[in-house]
Amino acid sequence: MKRKDVDSSMLVSIGYDEKKKILEVEFTSGGIYEYYDVDKKTYDELMNADSHGSYFYHNIRDDYDFSQIGKRKRSQKY
Question: What is the structure's pLDDT at 6?
């Protein structure tokens, strides 16, 4: 899934598969996670939020099932 870089102290990049309703998030800590059954409205609100990290924390983190799908290598830029 292609992710878009975001300006956030918590998040590096965000991707979304509208057909599968999967949100993919890369964190500054290096973890890459998928969140399941996320509707397009929530993705759009996340991408348009003044603070991506705050929106994620309050509206996604504890509200969706997720799994870690990877971890960025230390040498990779974030």
Answer: 97
- Cα(16)–Cα(61) distance, integer angstroms: 15
User: What dihedral angle (degrees, nearest 10) is formed by the CA atoms of 42, 46, 47, 48?
Assistant: 100
Residues 56-74 have pLDDT tens digits of 999 999 999 999 999 987 6
Pairing of strands 66-71, 22-27: unpaired
Distances 22 to 1, 15, 26, 50 between C-alpha atoms, Å: 10, 8, 13, 22
SS3 content of the chain, % helix, strand, coil (to 5): 20, 35, 40
Which tokens in the block code for residue 14? 């965000």
Alpha helices for the chain (secondary structure H): 40-48, 52-59
pTM of this prediction?
A: 0.90
